[in-house]
Amino acid sequence: MKSLARDRPRVPIASSTSLVDRDPSDPLHRVVELAQRGRIILDVTEADHRAATETLGPAHPVTAHFQAQKAEALKAWDRLVMELGREILEEAVAQPPVAWLEAPARRSRPAGRFFPIDGRTYLAEPVPGTSAAPVQWRLVRLDSQVDPYYVCRLDTSGHQCDCAEWIYRVAQPIAGVAAPRHCKHLLALIALGWI
């Protein structure tokens, strides 16, 4: 079996050129995309297993199916750790997102996209726009019970989010402290070209 380690860079991911601006065939871009897709799959299978356990109970056949899927995803993640190294994977999943997976519609939610922000998987669901905010997304973090965040592009070419970082650091900066232009949710959607 050919080792992935020979085909993948063993150097830190951080570089002067943004990964979003790199060609998808670039080795660093490919490592980050692989790591982010692996993390998304692992987080989605974990969420599916958790939901089946809570809804149907631990002994139900559907729960067993999702437990098996979660085990397969964990094995695949462990293979990535062995091939690339934990340090490279941790740095890769912390990069701005370059990967996402489509989330089909279900009875309880519309179609959306799974994608990473700072190593955590979110579900982005499109929300109908308004004249003041023509592009809107609802973001739900899979491993959290907190309320979803709403992110939008305003008709004035500005952006807005209802997360604490946006409200307290971007929209109302502290006097004398340099405020960021966007929160992490907006940065991720901007990197993906969704907003």
Spatial order of strands in the largest sheet: 1-2-3-4-5-6
**Relative strand content:** 15-25%
Q: Span from first to last CA?
A: 42 Å
Which runs of at least 5 residues are low in confidence (pLDDT < 50)? 1-6
Rg over alpha carbons: 19 Å
Topology of this structure?
Layout: H1 4-7, H2 27-56, H3 61-84, H4 86-93, E1 101-103, E2 112-117, E3 120-127, E4 135-141, E5 149-153, E6 159-161, H5 164-171, H6 184-192
Antiparallel strand pairs: 1-2, 2-3, 3-4, 4-5, 5-6
Helix pairs in contact: 2-3, 2-4, 3-4
Short description:
By secondary structure, the chain is an alpha+beta fold.
Question: Mind explaining what this structure looks like?
Answer:
43% of the residues lie in helices and 16% in strands. Helix 2 packs antiparallel against helix 3. Strand 3 and strand 4 form a beta hairpin. By secondary structure, it is of the alpha+beta class. It is globular.
Which descriptors would you attach to this protein?
195 residues, 16% strand, globular, disordered N terminus, alpha+beta, 6-stranded antiparallel β-sheet
